[in-house]
Structures are given as structure tokens and as C-alpha cells.
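hey so i finally got around to running the thing on that chain from the lab meeting. sorry it took forever, my laptop kept dying and i had to restart like 3 times. anyway pasting the input first so we r on the same page abt which one it is
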Amino acid sequence: MNPLNTQSINLLHKVSLLNEQWSPRVVAEMNDYQFKVVRIQGEFIWHCHAETDETFLVLDGNLRIDFRDGHVLLGTGELYVVAKGVEHKPYAEHEVKLLLIEPRGVLNTGHEGGERTAQNDVWI
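ok and heres what got predicted. didnt touch it at all, straight out
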């Protein structure tokens, strides 16, 4: 049995510890879901997650998530859930700090792979 953890998690502090962009880091888990902070700027790749939804919560900045038939704009404090199987591409003109919520083991690039694929289960 694990002892009760009485430490809160300051998301903005955790994201300030990140040195690189597009590399999500785990800050907490709930059941089989992970909460990950990440810094992003520029354009990501088109991808989808066939088996799960993906939640984006903007901690600081402005994020655009492109879809094949439109886009959604998110500002600080706003959240959006991309439904499973929906192809999408995040974009940030200026740096954005995000909290991602998704099941443990989900690759940030879906099944697309490539140089933007981040290592999973890295905690900060």
C-alpha cells in the first residue's frame, strides 16, 4: 500500500522545467490515464488515435487544432477533446503550454511515427 501523497502538482511549474518542445512529460496518473505537460510551437503532423480520445487543456497561449474539415481555436484555460479516430494537427504560432490527458502508452504521433514521436512514460 502506497502512503498518501499530500503534495499538489503545480502544472505551470512542471511545464517550466521542460527544456525542449514536443516532448510530453507525465506529471500524474489516474487509473490507466496519464496527465502530461508539454511545450509546443509551430506545426505538428497529421495523425489520429484510433483507440482513444485525446484531451488538450491550454495552460498558457493560443492553440489551433486543425481537422480535415475545419479547426478549433483554444486560449488559456480552454479544453478540447479530440474524439478517437479523428485526424488532427496541432499548431501554435507562438509557444503554448499544454496539459494532455490520454491513456498510458499512447504515442503522441498515433501510428504515423517519425521524428516527432516522443518517448512514453517519462516523468517530470
